[in-house]
Amino acid sequence: MNRTRVVVVGAGIIGAACARELAVAGFDVLVLDRSGAAAATTSHGEGNVLVSDKGPGPELELAQLSRRLWPEVLADLAGRTPSPHKPHELERPSEPDSPDAVEWDPKGGIVVATTAEGAEALLPFAAAQRAAGVRAETMDDDALTAAEPFLTERRTAAVYYPDDAQVQPAGAATALLADALRAGARLRTGHEVLGAVTRGGRLTGVRTADGPVEADVFVNAAGPWSGEVARRLGVPLDIRPRRGEVLVTTPLPPTVFHKVYDADYVGAVGSGAGDLQTSAVVESTRAGSILLGSSRRRVGFDDRLRPEVLSAVAAKALKLFPHLAGVHVMRAYGGFRPYVPDHLPVIGADPRLAGLWHATGHEGAGIGLSVGTGRLLRELLTGSATAIDTSPFRVDRPAVLGGPLDAPGTAEEGP
Ligand SMILES: Cc1cc2nc3c(=O)[nH]c(=O)nc-3n(C[C@H](O)[C@H](O)[C@H](O)COP(=O)(O)OP(=O)(O)OC[C@H]3O[C@@H](n4cnc5c(N)ncnc54)[C@H](O)[C@@H]3O)c2cc1C
Q1: How remote is the CA of residue 99 from the centroid of ligand 1, in Å?
Q2: pLDDT of the residue at 102
Q3: Of 5, 195, 212, 274, which is the most buried if we count CB atoms within 10 A?
């Protein structure tokens, strides 16, 4: 059995998925988080598991791998039985850990264009995806009305993606983490990584307020703070926060049946602009609330909820679902997507510091991409053949290495 000692820094969904894969493979895994399980970005976004918003390329391949893995992982979670553990070293996540908490819903997604230009962009985009193996079905107007009766009548094209799905992100992360604990991993919350312990040019430990924690391998899964964690360990990594906000309605009678979003969302995802971008992403949750998202801004770690941003998000959602005018919005929240300038995650060993690995930079897709990321990390760490080509995610690419060494995450332009 592989008893390599691994410290995973970060108990968000990426750290949880990595910890689970490694613990199941027999690694001796310790997850460290300065806060709590799923306490940061993972509980501040939505839970879409999408193939529809990715054009052909490495991120789509990772999304397709993850989409294949989700049902397999969930079946595994349901079947796993508790194993003995050392109670004094364990702290179980406070969220429920049954697969029910994951709220897996393979409901499918519908992308709707509302302008002629939107249709002109959407249909060739879907054709290119089809060529890359994505199921993408152009819908006629009657089919669209039957699928989403409350959708705007001002639509110019629509494509149905049967493989889009949804989870409850914090429930999914804590279920993955709980499974890692069952497989023998340990979790220490309230432990912040402050610096590095190195020996002979190798990372052999991380410093925390309670003393050093030693291991053979360290995985930086600190989400939007991965750049800061890397800096503390002595290497720059260009991961920046990209703010996003979501509105939540009170529970409503069934109104939105799929994951529905405006075709301009794909442009917003792919853009690196720092100023405010909004596009309608609308979906219902199991409790009946409807999530209205979302915004994209690069404003450092400024977490103020801004009225002009929330109203812009709401306005776009109403364009898609005019029927939602007048419903009650019971809360709004926001989080920081871990953004990399080339929009690709970072998965692999850091060639500058032996012992350091990264699993980060998933921006607005980390929930969906988590299980594929964990699988690739495990394959890379065990030297197995990887399910997909991981070279596009390697650490030593120009977009990633250019990170500032002294002031990561400082405010950039924005409203
Ligand atoms: C508005 C919004 C909507 C979104 N919608 C979707 C969606 O629909 N689908 C999707 O797939 N993705 C979505 N995302 C993106 C997704 O939420 C993220 O990609 C994902 O949560 C990132 O997970 P993570 O584990 O990398 O980071 P996090 O969840 O932020 O976890 C990082 C962890 O590292 C810990 N940490 C940080 N610094 C240290 C340190 N020094 N020492 C120890 N621990 C540390 C933190 O406490 C934290 O728990 C959305 C994001 C936002 C903001």
Answers
A1: 20
A2: 94
A3: 274
pLDDT band, very low/low/confident/very high, at 399 (cuts 50, 70, 90): confident
Rounded CA-CA distance 381/38 in Å is 24
In whole angstroms, what is the distance from residue 152 CA to residue 329 CA?
20
Closest ligand 1 atom number to CA of residue 192: 42
Q: Give the tokens for residue 405.
A: 């060494």
Q: Is the pTM of this model over 0.90?
A: yes
254 three-class SS: coil
Shortest-distance Cα residue to atom 51 of ligand 1: 45
Measured in Å, residue 375 CA sits from the centre of ligand 1 at 18
Amino acid at 258: H
**Position 185 confidence tier, pLDDT thresholds 50, 70, 90:** very high
pLDDT value, residue 37: 96
Domains by residue range for the chain, with CATH: 5-100+168-239+342-401 (3.50.50.60), 109-162+242-338 (3.30.9.10)
Q: Ligand 1 atom 19: the closest Cα is on which residue?
A: 366
DSSP 3-state percent helix, strand, coil across the chain (nearest 5): 35, 25, 40
Confidence of residue 264 (pLDDT cuts 50, 70, 90): confident
Å from CA of 254 to ligand 1 middle: 29
Question: Which tokens sit at 130?
Answer: 């089809």
Q: Is 221 in the pocket of ligand 1 (CB under 6 A)?
A: yes
